[in-house]
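tokens incoming
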């Protein structure tokens, strides 16, 4: 299976490492022989119809901070040129989420589908801004669009809700969908100010390059859009979310909640309305997880409540979700 990889940052590099460590196992167990024929990021690109040498690719990135040196050529193909010019079956989109216009990821995904490529994305921007229309485009072009790494990282939240609860009707759900804000609020519950807790989260590398994406609830809202469309069959975008972040939460708010045996958490909820906002929840609520953990509770018509808890994100966890989607696409292709 020939793959074009958009982005070669933490997730892209971890995906390459995962393919190197699992190549024999993937072929023996699943008949899958992934071949990355093109990679591009903001620093340059590399391509080979025979498949790129992933060890060399990783070495170039580590040594020079760029994949441009892979070929030692002056001119690089840009992403859209590579998508339209290379023979491939799958595009993997790992560039940074952008909630203003979703670029460049949106153009990568749209052009890939128009060229007949299946798409796996861990970039939430395009889905947050245009989930319904992207799925229409995938259906029209008879390609698959997969995105299990956009919510929960390596924790299979989307797969669980769609497959394990098949036959059930989910009537509502709510959850902690952003590990960074949960880490900050946990530290505030332990006595830190918001400013100190944010600085600590930055120091540990938990915060987006633009902190407002976490702090102001954009990341959680994007994940809520994806869940609402995929699980509840709603036709919504990030503009439909009522959103409030955690920057106004004070240590006094946190202490007041603790006196009532509660904790303040940034909760994303879908129950007729779609809301992301700080909320007090009981300390013994299954959703009341701490640190960078994520948790989500599904309320179903007959089975009651089910809660999933797991690590929200991380380079290797997200890379493993890409591999899960790749295997799913392989299975769908084989079935048809």
């Amino acid at each position: 299976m020939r793959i074009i990889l958009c982005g070669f940052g933490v997730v892209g590099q971890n995906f390459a490492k995962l393919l190197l460590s699992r190549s024999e196992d993937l072929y023996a167990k699943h008949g899958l022989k992934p071949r990355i024929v093109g990679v591009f990021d903001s620093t340059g690109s590399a391509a080979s119809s025979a498949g790129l040498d992933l060890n060399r690719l990783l070495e170039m990135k580590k040594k020079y901070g760029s994949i441009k040196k892979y070929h030692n050529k002056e001119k690089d193909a840009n992403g859209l040129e590579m998508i339209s010019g290379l023979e491939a079956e799958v595009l993997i989109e790992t560039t940074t989420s952008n909630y203003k216009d979703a670029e460049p990821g949106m153009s990568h995904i749209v052009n890939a589908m128009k060229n007949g490529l299946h798409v796996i994305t861990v970039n939430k921007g395009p889905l947050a801004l245009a989930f319904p229309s992207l799925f229409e485009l995938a259906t029209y072009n008879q390609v698959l669009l997969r995105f299990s790494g956009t919510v929960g990282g390596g924790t299979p939240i989307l797969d669980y809700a769609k497959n394990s609860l098949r036959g059930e009707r989910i009537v509502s759900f709510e959850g902690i969908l952003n590990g960074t804000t949960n880490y900050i609020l946990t530290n505030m519950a332990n006595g830190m100010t918001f400013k100190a807790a944010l600085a600590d989260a930055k120091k540990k590398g938990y915060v987006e390059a633009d902190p407002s994406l976490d702090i102001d609830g954009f990341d959680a809202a994007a994940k809520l859009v994806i869940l609402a469309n995929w699980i509840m069959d709603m036709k919504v975008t990030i503009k439909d979310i009522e959103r409030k972040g955690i920057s106004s939460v004070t240590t006094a708010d946190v202490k007041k909640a603790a006196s009532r045996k509660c904790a303040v958490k940034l909760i994303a909820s879908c129950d007729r309305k779609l809301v992301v906002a700080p909320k007090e929840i009981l300390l013994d609520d299954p959703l009341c997880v701490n640190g960078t953990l994520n948790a989500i509770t599904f309320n179903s018509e007959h089975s009651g409540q089910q809660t999933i808890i797991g690590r929200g994100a991380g380079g290797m966890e997200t890379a493993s979700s890409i591999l899960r989607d790749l295997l799913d696409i392989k299975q769908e292709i084989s079935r048809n």
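note: Residues 157-311 form a domain with the Dihydrodipicolinate Reductase; domain 2 fold (CATH 3.30.360.10).
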